[in-house]
Amino acid sequence: MRTLSDLRRVVRQLGDPKPPRAERLRTSRLAACYKCGPRFTPAGIKNISTTGVYLWTDIRPHVGDEVSLDFWETGGLECSLDLQLSIQARVARLGADGIGLEFLLPQGMNKGLWELLLRNIVVLSQPRHVAELFRTLRTMLFLCRLCPCEADEAIGLLSGRLPPDRTSIVARIAIGAELLLAAKPESGSMRAHPRVVADILFEGSWIPDEPTIQLWTGLLAASCSEDAPDDSNEIFAHLLGHFTPSQTRILIRGCEWALSHPASAGNCLPPSIILGPREMVAVTDVYDLYRNATDLAHLYNLGLIENVFDFTSYRPADSFDITPSRLGVELYKRCHGSRQKLEPELFEDAQAHLANFLPAPRPDIESETPPSLFPHLTARPKQEFT
Fold first, then answer.
1. What are the boundaries of each domain within the chain?
2. pTM of the complete model
């Protein structure tokens, strides 16, 4: 005879039927390993769906255990650290030949986007498209871990609101920062201010210049910490957003020399750093000396170097003072991992200089992303397996 609780359960099931089982797909291009204990264990993939995966393995964890799960693409044209995904999962069932895992999406991860991207990673055949999807999905997962439930604006930059070349740079900066943080034991608990993350990714996506991208990557990594997220690095994102590639090289060269000089201990800056014409061309790769002088004037107006180039003389440009200011050195340090508290006078100095510059225009970012924004993602007929 049924108890009252049994009857209530039956009534609930009648009124709230179970959703259809997610489609199981087979793949030979994905490899996996999982961590249940101190070490990662390689495992074959029997089938995968948007809700979970079944792995061939002899290890038998308990149902309900949480594991760290890594995927990577094995059939592409390139083998790279950024063609990997990491996600938490829960052991849902034990089989005769393996285990079934249920994916645990991070807070703020759009379920529809997850399903769209993961399914197409499995079914698409073009290696270039698969690599793009890996990077996009990896970036989204990382952003959701950094800014739980508040990553909409940053994720929106990946959803088609930017041109493809800029979207690619967004992913490069985010994945590069994730790799930098991975070396730290506390990386899993690090968080960042959502507005700072969005500013860094948006403003960093303008210039496909490797040294500049590396500065943006370092600034994003330095904006993450175990402490309560703060927006102190936003001012440095706005400064760096006004750089050209040649200006980046000038500041890097000046700061490298300044910080390596014995006199740079504490807050003291070394003597002036003067370059001749050939040295300046070697730094910037720009042969127009007055273009180099204009770049110096631009950095001076941003408050990042000490002295402005003298344009009052008609003689040929024969010397270039690239000595960085305290603000310039602080920007360089932030882009290389420094998390020291920003001095109020430096913040005020940066604000005063930025007041003379117009901010970069921002797109209208929406949190919801329609599938049509990924034109190469196509609906495939369901694959039935027996």
1. 20-108, 239-354
2. 0.84
